[in-house]
Design goal:
The chain has 285 residues and is an alpha/beta fold. 43% of the residues lie in helices and 19% in strands. The protein has 14 helices and eight strands. Strands 1, 2, 3, 4, 5, 6, 7 and 8 form an eight-stranded mixed β-sheet that branches. The longest helix is centred in the last third of the chain and has 15 residues.
């Protein structure tokens, strides 16, 4: 693990500092750390990322939002008709349980906050129809134990949707990922696993994996970029190597059949440390 000293002793301190830096306002906005919180949460609910999540929801009912942070996903789930339990160990009024409680009061949405960690869920077996985890699995201290807890509290036929998980190809890539991550140097806490480790933990928990979304297949992984900006970024990189190719490549990638093939090829050769993958799994009936 990364052992260099960090300038802040809590995530709240790091985010408060980040919000005061004029050059970091785009990052603050994209990470939904801006205020008022209700506006940030509503922006997330209306985002392309959430629209892609919504398409994969198979029911309403009781939802557990693990590692809920400020509560933006809890808000989105409640707006979709779920009764939400937000699991968040940090008590912070800015980036933790305090912020979620304030959001729930302001919106009068059915959101209850529980302060605990993913590896020891204080809930009865088969309590939830959905477990939702946004950028959570890579933070767990024990990935397999957390996945087993998620499976335990799911009802038969219930879903686990875990999105935006950092993936590395080999263990040596982890230090490079820490260096590249825009926030890890502030407080630490970031981590990444190999794709096989995520899959193994889910399968060992008794869940059935329905979908594994690669970095280029869905806005859940490449947000806040749009599809067109992502395609233009790829064309720009190709154009840097092949003069004059950018315009042609941009045009070709905008064609659905070409993009379908291209993203599969590109994902197969994508070894960026910390690239995003997402997982949809169900508990057997």
């Amino acid at each position: 693990m990364h052992t260099k000293s960090k300038p802040f002793t809590s995530w709240e301190e790091a985010v408060r500092w980040l919000r005061d830096q004029p050059e970091q306002q785009e990052l603050v906005h994209d990470a939904y750390y801006d205020d008022p919180l209700i506006s940030a949460a509503d922006r997330y609910w209306k985002s392309e990322e959430w629209q892609a999540v919504r398409e994969r929801l198979t029911s309403t009912g009781m939802a557990l939002d693990v590692g809920a942070g400020r509560g933006i996903a809890s808000y989105a789930l409640a707006r979709e008709g779920f009764t939400v339990t937000a699991l968040e160990p940090d008590e912070s009024d800015l980036v933790g349980a305090g912020a979620i409680r304030a959001l729930a009061r302001e919106t009068a949405l059915p959101i209850t906050v529980v302060q605990e960690f993913s590896e020891r869920l204080p809930f009865e077996d088969a309590s939830f129809d959905l477990v939702f985890a946004r950028a959570v699995l890579h933070h767990t201290q024990d990935l397999t134990k957390a996945c087993k807890e998620f499976a335990r509290v799911l009802r038969p036929g219930g879903q686990l949707i875990a999105i935006r998980e950092h993936v590395i190809t080999k263990l040596e890539d982890k230090e490079k990922f820490f260096e590249l991550h825009p926030l890890h140097h502030l407080y630490g806490g970031e981590n990444a696993f190999k794709l096989s480790e995520y899959k193994g933990a889910l399968l060992n928990s008794g869940l059935h994996i329905q979908n594994v979304l690669d970095p280029l297949s869905s806005p859940v992984n490449y947000a806040p970029r749009s599809l067109s900006s992502l395609q233009d970024e790829i064309a720009q990189r190709i154009g840097a190597r092949i003069p004059g190719a950018r315009g042609v490549v941009t045009m070709l990638l905008s064609l659905a059949p070409v993009w379908y093939c291209a993203r599969h090829v590109l994902s197969a050769f994508d070894h960026r440390p910390g690239r995003h993958y997402s997982f949809v799994a169900i508990k057997g009936k």
